[in-house]
Amino acid sequence: MPHIVPDSPDAHGRSGPELGRYLFRNVPSDAVINFLATYQFHEQSADTDPSLLINYIRKRITVADSLRQWNVAIIGKPATHPGETLTFAENITVGRIVRSRLNGASQQPDFADIKTLMGARDAAIDLAGDINNLNEQTMRAARRQQLPHTGLLALYPIDKTSAPASAKTHRAPLNAEEHVIGVGLVFPHPTTTDSTV
Hints:
The chain is of the alpha+beta class. It is 20% helix and 22% strand. The radius of gyration is 17 Å and the shape is globular. The chain starts with 20 loop residues before the first strand and ends in an 11-residue tail after the last strand.
């Protein structure tokens, strides 16, 4: 596998070490498939069956020559406090983010509903131009135009405690056993050749 290096910090301030956000472009699909095969999704995450995701990616590659390349984003915060960081690889250290659980969403000790992991700005991290005013519809249109065959894998280093801000009374600390790596996937809109996959 080729050595993959992070994209240079961009002029729009979407990625760079000082932001705790890294972007890797043109990552081969095999690397993403290998990651999905080894990542441990929670068994109650119905939308994230790794075998279904991998089969879907392989079919889109075969049927439409889509998803051969991916962009991979690490979405943390600035690594300003050494005790609050997570290292993904040499020279790739970011601050852990907070994703607290919803109060009363589940009484199961090993399950936490955080509602939303990935924001619209995160799903546009690899797009050119100003992304600050994109809503979901305009972001999808921009992805179709700029990256019609490229997927996005976003990785989130989540602090195991993830205590909510005191003003958020509908939230409770995550209190996971370990720090968590959250995963977000953005697939390109199917074209006519792969819309039946």
